Amino acid sequence: MKLVKRMLLLLVGVGLLVACTENVETLENPDVEEDIWITDEAPLKIGFAMDTLKEERWLKDKALFETAIESHGLEVEIAAANGDDALQIAQAEEMIQNGIDLLVIVPHNAEATAAIVHKAHGAGIKVIAYDRLVKNAEIDLYVSFDNEKVGELQAEAMMKLVPKGNYVFIGGAPTDNNAHLLKKGVFNALQPAIDRGDIKIIYDEWTEDWNPEYAFAHMAEALEINDNQIDAVISANDATAGGAIEALEAQGLAGVIPVAGQDAELAAVRRIVDGTQMMTVYKPIQDLSEQVAALAVHLAQDKEFHPTVSINNGKSEVPAVLLEPVAVNNDNLRDTIIADGFHSEDDVYGTE
């Protein structure tokens, strides 16, 4: 990486709130001093290799991350592969060839994208995994939400409403490490009730590429093989929850069988207002994008950052920053999602 004459140095203290998980320590307010360089050549460039822009959530991430990087006076190059592993690798390789100073990646396939990390490191470029962990590679930093906690929040909210009964679990994409973490959190929370015989998991299936159409098919199958005798549905995100709810609607059961999701997508929040979805888990992605941007600037300048939290990705203990998710239902929509400006009150409660 080439850095030329420093003309301006701006020191910014970045406070990071990190959730405590079972296997990691809590890190609070590390001192991260961020050097913003303005040079007589091109500014630093950050590459952002995204899995997809087919979901509302990731469109928001793209816009927020781009704004955050540009606010520091840096350039950003963004590409989305929309679920195509080979394309994501090719896009990242092109960014590396174009001379990016650091790569931020949202992997589609947690294992396949290890090849991207190897290529970046071979070119002397550090890599941050954004929200999703890359497996079996020496990642420089992983910044996400506590995804096990997301699953726990879903299960805990559902058990308050349905303490006993037949549960369906509609999982996420098996290639996404977050889907596995979320499922672990769900089943960790449910296990005592399962052991007591209060809750029975009568259907459990992954959903390829988080595709709502596949989630619809899974829910329809679960209803058919169980003769509609289902008491609760936990879906891995709001898109799969939407597919499941469509299948319930076809049987006249939307709003009768409660459904949990995550991501706080607008359609899901509106379903919560309408009563067809019971809850979602809100992840303040503006905090995520801003903190990844600040840390990208820091690492791109070869400055060290040593969080005490780490996550094992099958290759090494990856330094990690984990943010706290928030359970949201009809009672706290205004105090969370709307208060943060994630969705406006008009968008949530309006007719348009």
From TrEMBL:
Q: Does the keyword Cell division apply?
A: no
Periplasmic binding protein domain location, by residue?
46-303
Cross-referenced Pfam families, in alphabetical order? Answer: Peripla_BP_4 (PF13407)
Q: Where in the cell is it found?
A: Cell envelope
Does Glycoprotein show up as a keyword for this record? no
Kindly give the NCBIfam families that the UniProt entry links to this protein. Answer: xylF
Q: What is this protein called?
A: D-xylose ABC transporter substrate-binding protein
> Could you tell me which species this protein originates from?
Planococcus dechangensis
